């Protein structure tokens, strides 16, 4: 992130440096015995503070993160509880703070500080092969936790809907969040507006596969499975946690599998045809095919019943790729289909992740 990100957050919220000082002071009043510092790396939709206990305190208990968020990007308490139930200690405990009135309608949330380093700060390609394998296997185990939380619902759904036409019905009834309630609408828009016919054809195929599914597990998906939100153990590279659950919602199991691609490759610059500017190129690292296979093998070892729904899971993986990279993030308004000029990174991801040249 650039050095002016802090100022960008406050200006985006229509607030000032004075408002920043008021907010930091309000948090410090809640933790008079602790050290409260600003994070060096700030997110786009939140302002984050680290709350550390006195040095005399034993252990790491009492270490927190406090985030200030506008209402439109607030963390939902029910989602926080569901994340903890589904993913256990890999999701932080969270609670809303009763601060003195904060400017701009900002809300403060306290989160348990999880151990680990953001994957975004790890040079995955430069690590040992053993670490890369462990990273992929532990990510598979993380994903598998969601299946366990969804199985009971799926069994009930099969019984209750066995004789009822179900084309897309299970989506409408159980995916009711910001993204979930418009999955088909968003996919159909992509099928008309993505920048080339190969991508549009892939969307049409995905829609057809999706509508053929009569029932499928729905589970809490993280919603922003990117390297800065995935924590790993600095020594072993095992996944140690997931942070920033603001975009999480109930979606088909596997919608978040675009996150696997970040473990297997990354962007490299390449010259455009006229050699006057560079365009992003996603390149998979050596050994990525083996690691991808190891992910799927581990996932099925953890939850053998996944084998029965592997085609549906592959479809949901593609749905997730299309929804997360087919739409641009325009100040939080995720309704514009990406194009080659303004969204080169997103279109590069679409082509690479969907294997559409």
Automatic annotation (TrEMBL):
<dbReference type="InterPro" id="IPR002575">
    <property type="entry name" value="Aminoglycoside_PTrfase"/>
</dbReference>
<feature type="domain" description="Aminoglycoside phosphotransferase">
    <location>
        <begin position="62"/>
        <end position="250"/>
    </location>
</feature>
<protein>
    <recommendedName>
        <fullName>Aminoglycoside phosphotransferase domain-containing protein</fullName>
    </recommendedName>
</protein>
<dbReference type="InterPro" id="IPR011009">
    <property type="entry name" value="Kinase-like_dom_sf"/>
</dbReference>
<dbReference type="Pfam" id="PF01636">
    <property type="entry name" value="APH"/>
</dbReference>
